[in-house]
């Protein structure tokens, strides 16, 4: 059985949260149901899922989640939340990490991703979705794409992680995360040659995996997923409007 860690920590205010009158977008309502609850439902109905933990504002989450969910009080940053979640969950083997803002996620997408990751001989698995598949399912939705091997891909919001790699990876992730708002230093960390290939759209999946391994001292593998639901998150009011249009009302 594969354990799950759902990341529902409070981020900085955005146009989306301000328009919806919430501090945490995990609690935005879609047909009267919290957004994170759609994500939770996908894992509850997927085969092979074990324990589920949610990192979130503890009091608000306890008022909304069922008793069998492990609620972990949020920390000060995304990396801190990941640390707290792992310490509380204590997964003994590969486990899933997912954001709370992918309400389109389905049990089928989760099961397909896990099957594609077998035999779990890498430390970190990251799904990517082709532009063609994404636009077929969600026409007109704007995503950030990277051209790889004559095709364009966008990243997913679901990861499979080996807990034994975290002691080495987390300090590096923390440093990388701290540089996210400094493009020059971030580019320096990635390497000029790699950035140039990325800009020229000449990077291969293998090169991405090798650069990831060098940055975080872990073996990572990109997994092509045919399920755009795995990567279409809710960041803007237009994303939320689409979710309210396409998702079925509860009941």
Structural write-up:
The mean pLDDT is 89. Strands 1, 4, 5, 6, 7, 8, 9, 10 and 11 form a 9-stranded mixed beta sheet that branches. The protein has a two-stranded antiparallel ribbon with strand order 2-3. β2 and β3 (33-34) form a beta hairpin. The chain is built from 11 helices and 11 strands. The chain has helices at 15-20, 35-45, 58-62, 78-89, 107-117, 131-137, 166-178, 183-190, 192-199, 205-216, 237-246, and strands at residues 2-7, 29-30, 33-34, 49-56, 70-73, 95-99, 124-130, 146-148, 151-155, 158-161, 220-225. The protein has one domain: Alpha-Beta Complex (Spore Coat Polysaccharide Biosynthesis Protein SpsA, Chain A), CATH 3.90.550. It has 251 residues and is of the alpha/beta class.
Straight-line N-to-C gap: 29 Å
Q: What's the tally of helices? A: 11
Percent range for β-strand residues: 15-25%
* CATH secondary-structure class: Alpha Beta
Structural class: alpha/beta
The average pLDDT is 89
Which bin fits the share of residues in helices?
40-55%
Number of domains: 1
Biggest sheet architecture: 9 strands, mixed
CATH homology-level superfamily: Spore Coat Polysaccharide Biosynthesis Protein SpsA, Chain A
CATH topology (level 3) name:
Spore Coat Polysaccharide Biosynthesis Protein SpsA, Chain A
Question: What is the CATH architecture term?
Answer: Alpha-Beta Complex
Return the string of H and E elements: EHEEHEHEHEHEHEEEHHHHEH
The total strand number stands at 11
Uncertain segments: none
Shape: globular
Radius of gyration, rounded?
A: 18 Å
């Amino acid at each position: 059985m594969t354990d799950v860690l759902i990341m529902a920590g409070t981020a900085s205010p955005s146009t989306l949260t301000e328009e919806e009158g919430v501090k945490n977008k995990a609690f935005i309502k879609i047909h009267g149901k919290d957004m994170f609850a759609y994500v939770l439902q996908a894992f509850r109905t997927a085969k092979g899922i074990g324990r589920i933990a949610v990192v979130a504002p503890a009091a608000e989450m306890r008022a909304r989640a069922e008793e069998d969910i492990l609620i972990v009080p949020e920390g000060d940053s995304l990396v801190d939340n990941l640390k707290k979640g792992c310490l509380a969950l204590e997964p003994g083997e590969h486990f899933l990490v997912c954001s709370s803002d992918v309400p389109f996620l389905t049990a089928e997408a989760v099961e397909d991703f896990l099957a594609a990751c077998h035999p779990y001989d890498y430390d970190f698995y990251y799904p990517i979705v082709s532009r063609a598949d994404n636009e077929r399912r969600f026409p007109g939705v704007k995503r950030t794409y990277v051209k790889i091997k004559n095709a364009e891909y966008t990243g997913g919001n679901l990861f499979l992680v080996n807990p034994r790699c975290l002691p080495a990876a987390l300090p590096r992730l923390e440093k990388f995360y701290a540089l996210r708002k400094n493009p020059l230093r971030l580019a320096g960390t990635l390497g000029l040659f790699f950035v140039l290939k990325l800009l020229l759209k000449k990077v291969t999946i293998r090169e991405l995996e090798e650069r990831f391994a060098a940055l975080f001292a872990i073996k990572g593998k990109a997994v092509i997923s045919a399920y755009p639901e795995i990567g279409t998150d809710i960041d803007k009011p237009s994303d939320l409007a689409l979710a309210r249009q396409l998702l079925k009302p509860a009941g």
